[in-house]
Give the backbone structure.
Amino acid sequence: MSELTRRLVLLGPGLAWFALFLVAPCAIVFVYSFLERGTYGGIDRVFTLENYTRAADPLYLGIFISSARIAAMTTLAALLFGYPAAYGIAAAPKRWQVPLLILVMLPFWSNYLIRTYAWIVLLNREGLINHGLEVLGLADEPLPLLYNDFAIVVGLVYGYLPFMVLALYSSIARLNPETLEASADLGASGLRTFLRVTLPLTVPGIAAGCVFVFVLSIGNFITPDLLGGGRTLMVGNLIFNQFLSARDWPFGSGLAFLLIALMMLLLLVQAVVARRAGGAGLHA
Amino acid sequence: MLKAPLSRRVLGAHLGLVYLFLYGPIAVLVALSFNESGLPTAWTGFSVEWYGKMLANAAIRAAVVNTLIVAAFSTLIATAIGTLLALGMERLRSSAAMDAAIYMPMIIPDIVLAIALLSFFTALDFTLGLHSIIAAHAVFNIAFVCVVVRATLKHFDKSIVEASIDLGASESRTFLRITLPVIFPGVLSGALLAFTLSVDEFIIAYFTAGAGPSSTTFPMQIYSMIRFGVTPEINAVATIVLGVSFVLILVSQRLRRDEPL
């Protein structure tokens, strides 16, 4: 067997599957995004840029902005909550680190719908948290915890915190302890060492975690749908509606491509940040 | 890495809080599934009544069967193709473009893949059903299997393959008798991960299932139950689903040992 045939046999099926069920479908969506919507919800083969100009309409731009706001709040909360957790795992005895990390990741791989549903049980008017507050005498009447942006952010943080912790851990665990010791030996306080040495060296992990949590959040459909009660539309819900209820596939395709473009841009930023920060002070 | 006992204690407490945040809501669902009243606010006694109700629900049973069919076939396809892909990538010089091609199906927002596949199948006049969900799930599952197997291949000692060839074994024989058994834990680990992901996947299945209840999968059934209102039956369903996912993922991790994913 020649090396070429060997590669063809090994790589061929996978690349063919991706070409057929990933690249071709995305190409179709890209083409649709430049076509007009037919009268009865079909697609007319007429070139137009309207799907993209329409996305700039205040109504839709507003949805993009509020989605970005919610995704940004989620990312920030996950980072603030996740950094000390990742640091704590990296500081734990070596043999505990992998089990602790698996324990963080376990929910991430399980059913997202059910994990979201758990928050309906906790946050609704007759839910566990309101009940608890009432029993403790902390609230006279149920707090509106569910069906608002707060619930969406809580649900998204719950969903994606494990991913943030994993990204941060892989950066923090690669820190060279000698670099930190050098900083301490030279008289820097713990806080100063953290701000001037640890934090800058873990920027690649921070960037990777933040980009992925942001992208996963802004394109999310389930959480705003179930925990937002349909009051807050996010980009994911907007795309969903264009395809399944409004039957405006070209516009939905345009929105999907804007989402992909945003994702690509953020990944590019992340790659640049990681390359700049990479190297110094880390284990090989 | 950390010397000060105070910071250690603070970090430990914070970590405890994170685990409480991650597992508290899950524990609540499990507890509720055994609550006779089914209400989150009043414990009226231990009962497995809701599990009985769940098993008696014909729609749930049909959806579970559909999901098992989809997961089994998409896992089989993905495990075969993903393993080959990982082996093939070993033979190439590492390139960022090739890596990106593998990661793309993992990071593309699921709603985008969902509408893209719906557009594609509709444009080709392809009849939707379980087979289209299988094809769709195989896309991201191939990527996940490939990544897991590649991690195993990192520790693979290639000299044993050379030894086998030197001793006169054919290439296919070497693959079946040497390479495959050595990387098998990784392949199985990837397959278990793929199976779990397929069992739990909702949006892509929702878009590629087509109309009609004949191709409703378990997550689609769960979604409509949640939308319909909080019924205690869901807690029993949730407990089973989370339990099965956790076991499969833990076994998958165990097979991989040092590479947490």
